Amino acid sequence: MKKIVFLLSILISTISLGQEELPSVDLTTIDGKTKNSRDAVKQDNVVVVSLWATWCVPCLKELDAISEVYEDWQDETNVQLIAVSVDDSRTIKRVKPLINGKGWDYEVLLDENNDFKRALGASTVPLTLIIKDSKIVYRHSGYTPGSEEELYEKIKEYAN
After folding, report:
1. In the 8-state DSSP scheme, what is residue 83?
2. Are 42 and 158 in contact (CB under 8 A)?
């Protein structure tokens, strides 16, 4: 019984301290300019950060699904989405043509050396984060159809 109480107290303290600061990492815009990750999310509203890659089919499906409802999400919650590509030097050249073809209305940043991905401790993509006041308040790894609905419920929760 003492072990259970001890483990529960650790779990509760971890949950209350669970909001981690967004790491400060320099990323690159599609136009080749440098933008710090914290500067990219500095605003009063909720920001969704999605780590993705051109070779990641679930990533593309998630960003396509969000693209279909993104305008409504913005109207209702003023959310912003930043898609951070973790493509490396071999595949980075595919990013710009892909996003131009998709017509995504997101800010796209490049994490060519995977510094941001490493700083987040992300082992796989897609990784979707909700940022509020420069803190990571929600983290979801992977994508299955319909996950965007759960994400939107979380966005509404933090937007209020």
Report:
1. E
2. no
